[in-house]
Design goal:
It contains 1 helix and 9 strands. The chain is α+β, with helices and mostly antiparallel strands. It folds into 2 domains: 35 residues, no CATH class; 72 residues, Immunoglobulin-like (Sandwich), CATH 2.60.40.1120. The protein has a 4-stranded antiparallel sheet, with no helix packed on it. The chain has a 3-stranded mixed sheet with strand order 6-3-9, with no helix packed on it. A hairpin with a 2-residue loop joins strand 4 and strand 5.
Length: 136
């Protein structure tokens, strides 16, 4: 027999029913609203888009997500001009977990100076002048 109720754990048991008798079954539905957890997510700077397991959940300052089933969640924050931040966090039954992300500007790769390119162009120009002078 299986007993279910939204927001609670299912209760599954084997029941024997004998002819001419009443059988009573007690179903223990674990979980429930108090078994869920809450996640508070903030960022510095504020204004970051919050994704929970790749689903958009809002923009900081803080985003509070309640009624989460206990377990591991991937929290990702994105803000234009900053490196994407991501972390796996644990949500516990009846508790509030906090995620505080410090977003960093992206690291820039070094750019090469145009000086070597200009030197090559200049050398090619000099070669062209010498060749033109020889042909005259």
């Amino acid at each position: 027999m299986k007993v279910t109720l939204a927001g609670y754990d299912d209760s599954v048991s084997t029941v024997t029913v004998n002819s001419g008798q009443t059988t009573t079954v007690n179903a223990n539905l674990g979980g429930g609203p108090s078994a869920k957890g809450t996640l508070d997510i903030s960022s510095s700077p504020t204004g970051a888009t919050v994704f929970l397991n790749n689903v958009n959940k809002g923009i900081t300052p803080p985003v509070t997500l309640s009624d989460l089933i206990p377990g591991s969640y991937t929290v990702t924050l994105e803000l234009s001009g900053y490196t994407t931040w991501s972390e796996v966090t644990q949500v516990n039954s009846g508790a509030t977990s906090t995620v505080s992300a410090s977003l960093a500007p992206p690291t820039h790769t070094a750019t090469q100076s145009p000086a070597p390119v200009l030197a090559v162009i200049g050398a090619l120009g000099a070669c062209a002048v010498i060749l033109a002078a020889r042909r005259e």
